[in-house]
Amino acid sequence: MASREYEQFLATWAFEAQRNAQLMRALPTAQYDFRPEKDWRSIGELAWHLAEGDAYMADAAAKGQFDFESKIPGLERPKTIAELAPAYERVHADAIAKVRALKPEDFDRTLTDFDGKQLRIGDMLWAYLLHHNIHHRGELVLMCRMAGGVPPGLYGPNREEMKAMMEARANG
């Protein structure tokens, strides 16, 4: 069972990471500092939070404990939209290597959660890394639209892609 979960997690994470990078490439280039409200993260900050999630959660899985005091090398936030996707892909590759170094049975080991409770590493990776990341990507899609961008259809066509498909069908 552990081997199946391990492979399924890695495949799902790779699939979702491609969509993260795809969205980062679609962000409006002049809107790095756009924020819907003054206390929210900017587009650039929120996009980079996806990389931070990959890095810190993979590091916790590898070490068997959370360590938010130490800085992970190479995790400095890029300062332009154009730099986000390539830097995210680099951070993600490093995170993947850390998780791939685990054995499938390591997913059943536990670590101490933020609230002091024991948490299975597999559950932490699914929830705190993958699902948390997808949650923030949803916010980033909306921020992209609010800032005048056109986010890609990540699980199906967006409205622009759907319109083009319908026009092609009508003219085809």
Describe the protein in words.
The protein has 172 residues and is mainly alpha-helical. Helix content is 61%, strand content 3%. It has a two-stranded antiparallel ribbon.
What's the structural blueprint in terms of helices and strands?
Layout: H1 2-26, H2 43-63, H3 81-100, E1 110-112, E2 118-120, H4 121-146, H5 159-171
Antiparallel strand pairs: 1-2
Helix pairs in contact: 1-3, 1-4, 2-3, 2-4
Sketch the topology as an H/E string, one letter per element: HHHEEHH
Q: What is the alpha-carbon Rg in Å?
A: 18 Å
| Number of DSSP helical runs | 5
Class by helix and strand content?
mainly alpha
Keywords:
172 residues, mainly alpha, Four Helix Bundle (Hemerythrin (Met), subunit A), two-stranded antiparallel sheet, 5 helices
How would you summarize this macromolecular structure in one to three sentences?
The protein has 172 residues and is mainly alpha-helical. The protein is 61% helix and 3% strand. It is globular.
